[in-house]
Protein 1
Amino acid sequence: MAAYVYGVVRAGAVEKVTTPGVNAAGGAVRLVDHDGLAALVSDVPDGPLTGTKDDVLAHSRVLEEAVERVTVLPMRFGVVMPSAEAAEDELLTEHQEDLVAQLDAFEGLVELDLKIVCPEEVQMRAVVAERPDIAQLSREIRGRPADATYYERIRLGELVAEASAAMRDELAELVVSAIEPLAVRTDVGEPAHEQMLLNVAFLAKRERLEEIDRAVGRLDQELAAGMNLKYVGPLPPYRFVEAAIEGAAWA
């Protein structure tokens, strides 16, 4: 059997993980130890991983159970090694120094993900309410033939795009200014789709989680109607772990 690898923790930090692993045919999640390190692995059949939605969720849930208690270096989804022995030799033994250094760097730290999504029609109403010039141009071309208003429609699209970008920037400033002083690092990512206004992750000390939770709660009360705040954590530091090891499959 091959070994699916979820992440790396300190040896002895986790006794067991009860969350089912990837692939229903595979075994339970267990730990492979080597000289102060342990890899979270489970058995999977030899050959390519199917990579179903359930597998992706299982990968995340295993890591989330572990990170509730200990510092975790997450592997990205889909890392399969020929055997548990290979995980010990080729990962833990070969890269021990680098793995220990990263575990030291992230000791006591977790990731918190915050996203704000909003339906496009709600975004448009907010933009029009804030920008009289957009509202006026929209009224001027409404009901007129598309070919006769070609350039006006282009201009309208440009104005809407500018206003939407400004709204995202203001929202990012509001959120980051409220949470960043409570965090160790901040990563503002690109929105994953048109309805996403903000995609930001914070690296935070465990002892400040309740304080950050309260700050996020206050932010949620300040958001305009129709904006939906999604807040997830604690998570392994997916967006902050650097691929310091050549060829490593860190998240």
Protein 2
Amino acid sequence: MSKKINYKIFLLIVLILFISVKYNFFINTYGLVKKDYPNRMNSVYGHCSKEGYGFTKFIHDKYKPKYNLTSINGQPQTYANVDGFFYDKKKVTNEKFKILVNYNENISANFKDFKILEKNKNCYFIKKND
């Protein structure tokens, strides 16, 4: 009877280890413990790539806007916007300012009424001319 229980426990342990290795549990846990929150967010959502979390965070930290900013991802079929990370329901959205991420198109043609305030690779922070 005890051999049968030990065998089941052994199989359970082997199964748990197999699943842990298959889904990189140990590597992911190490990354979670070793990296701080901003680095994890940048590695998952990108700085000036993917969703552009890092660039958007930089703009929010530098300008400290009193309103919600609109971001436009140049690859909407591939990546979503990170507006939800920075949205504050107490603030209104201001359409005068926009954050463009992964924007490879001609900005002067599509946003001719806007002025570039910040640029980093293919990410832009633009303001509508008054």
Protein 3
Amino acid sequence: MTIDIDEGQQFTFGKLFLEGQEPWAGEADALRKAWAALSGKRYDSSLLRRWLIQNATFLPNDERQFLQMEEHLDARARLVHFKLTFP
């Protein structure tokens, strides 16, 4: 038996897009600045989860469940862009 495993293409973190009303003035700029630490790095869902935990402090715990984060793959450029929508 021969098994051929293909992990697929490697992707990197792309841009962060923000939508909706920011809870406090300056939060959107702070998130964009924090995103710079991920942008260009190899995509890893655990890095994204850690980033969200560190940077979602602007939302009360009961509202974090309503935070929407969408992934948008750019297969050609091998980038994963994200859109975060404030509740």
Protein 4
Amino acid sequence: MPTPLRQFARDRAGRRCEYCHFSEANLPLWPFHLDHIVAKQHGGSDDASNVAWSCHRCNLRKGTNLSAVDPDTGQVVRLFHPRTDDWRDHFKASAGRITGLTETGRATAWLFEMNTDDRVYLRRVLKGTFE
């Protein structure tokens, strides 16, 4: 991926994962990646409107998925899209946990395993810098 696009996406995201909102500054040992929101194999492009800055764990869990199952309803729904969705419409951060407020938020948080014990603990430790 061209370096200028990587730097643009990184700066646009404020050096935070656009999915779980962990900051690069707080995770120096976790590599961050340029994620194709819609994977190239599904017709996605390298355009700035189709890339997101993502921590390693969110990128790994997302893979090429475009949808996931909402754990509350069992319905297959689209994943959160950082270019077209507002994070605050779909998620709420509280006490170290990220709660999905919509079917998209719940499905994304579930698929990305945003609330594993280690991630919740780290958010609680970093409370002043996360929320």
